[in-house]
Amino acid sequence: MTIAKGDRLPAATFAKITENGPEQVNSDTFFAGRTVALFSVPGAFTPTCSAKHLPGFIEKADALKQKGVDEIACTAVNDAFVMDAWGKSAGAQGKVTMLADGNGDFAKAVGLVMDGSKFGMGTRGQRFSMIVKDGVVQELNVESPGDFKVSSAEHMLGQL
């Protein structure tokens, strides 16, 4: 079942790279008591994700925060090392937190997986964005396959 507006996010564990190496991030703790702009991409370093999706959130980080977003986070079914390298190469430090969903557990739990096997990518998370307040989905924007419209930072700004 796909998550919907008004639903509480399921418990999941992400990973991120810190100065101490990889660390687990509990979703209940991460989303508690604040507003998070979360977006998911099919894969780090992939064309649309690298040219448009992540850069849009980096560029609009200040505007999103001015509208009440406490943190911006990007997730993908990649390992924490790849997510960290992608974030660094894109200049995301201090603007977008890179959360690895290495096994796709979060994507499965929210019912937003896609089959990327024809591209050699296996099961991945769909392209989507959501505004999460204190662990509850306030807005959910799921892209149609191959599209990049409703999950953008620009679209999200209009929702805040």
From TrEMBL:
Enzymatic reactions: a hydroperoxide + 2 glutathione = an alcohol + glutathione disulfide + H2O
Recorded GO MF terms: thioredoxin peroxidase activity
Family, similarity comment: Belongs to the peroxiredoxin family. Prx5 subfamily.
Assigned EC number: 1.11.1.27
Function noted in UniProt: Thiol-specific peroxidase that catalyzes the reduction of hydrogen peroxide and organic hydroperoxides to water and alcohols, respectively. Plays a role in cell protection against oxidative stress by detoxifying peroxides.
Name of protein: Glutathione-dependent peroxiredoxin
Gene Ontology CC terms: cytoplasm
GO annotation terms (biological process): cell redox homeostasis; cellular response to oxidative stress; hydrogen peroxide catabolic process
Pfam families in the record: Redoxin
Record-annotated active site: 49
Top-level taxon in the UniProt lineage: Bacteria
UniProt xrefs under InterPro entries: PRX5-like (IPR037944), Redoxin (IPR013740), Thioredoxin-like_sf (IPR036249), Thioredoxin_domain (IPR013766)
Lineage: Bacteria, Pseudomonadati, Pseudomonadota, Alphaproteobacteria, Sphingomonadales
Stretches assigned to the Thioredoxin domain: 3-160
UniProt keyword annotations, A-Z: Antioxidant, Oxidoreductase, Peroxidase, Redox-active center
